[in-house]
Amino acid sequence: MTHAASASNVSQPSLTAAIKKLEAELGGAQFIRDRAGCRLTPLGKLMFTRLKRVHTETQEAKAEAIRHTRLERVPIRIGVGETIGHNKVSEAVERFRARLAQAEIELIVAPSEALFSGLRGGDFDIVVTAENVSPELYRIDTLYREEYRVVVAIGHALANQDAVSLADLAKTSMLNRPNCEMRDTLHETCAGHGHVLYAAYRSNRVDWLIELARQGSGAVILPATAIPADRGLVSLPIKDIELAREVVALRYRHQATRPETNDLVREISRS
Hints:
Low-confidence stretches: none
Number of strands: 11
Number of helices: 9
CATH architecture of the largest domain: 3-Layer(aba) Sandwich
Order of helices and strands: HHEEHEHEHEEHEHEHEEEH
Shape: rod-shaped
CATH class of the largest domain: Alpha Beta
Radius of gyration: 31 Å
CATH superfamily of the largest domain: Periplasmic binding protein-like II
Strand content: 15-25%
Structural class: alpha/beta
Number of domains: 3
Mean pLDDT: 87
Distance between the termini: 65 Å
Largest sheet: 9 strands, mixed
């Protein structure tokens, strides 16, 4: 008992009292004490395996709690809308990790419905989107405002212009994104000016549309942060209309927010 008390960093009387309390709770002696020393009773042997498992799980739970509070192996989970350009978000994440190296970031790109459901269910810490949502359900932080631009190959007929008009777009084969939140606004505005846009290709994948534009297949309208720095491409402003959007970070109001998440939101909103 003396050695056991020393190994447990408690006094021998305290250890003896704890054992008596345990034996009272379990309904029988746990140890046999005689001249040969101290050994487990049959009940003690039965309890030892279970109590050892409880002790191991308790220690693991404590370690997991420490990792969570210190952001060790517990990622900040960011849900990203399909139409959100990666440039600004990825740059902000890299700056954030330069300051907080132990932080892990998990980026999941998904449709809006899956993102909102996941945010309410605790699968995401924040969601980056351009969708309009209820402020009663979500905390909304504006991250940035960005314009839409026309992207064409460097050899395209529009590439040498300073800006592109709606009339120009009506004469051009367009590369269409069905999941673009500005798609209906653009088509309605063009129709109001007597123009109709023709989509030669359609895809919900920005990378596919960019590659088609690079090959000279047509023009694609993209938010500024989704346009890559590519010598084979030219991006041009649109005349006649102001086509822009606000990108926001959403947090579910009924979910606790870690301080590091606040820091990350501020980092993304930096110009």
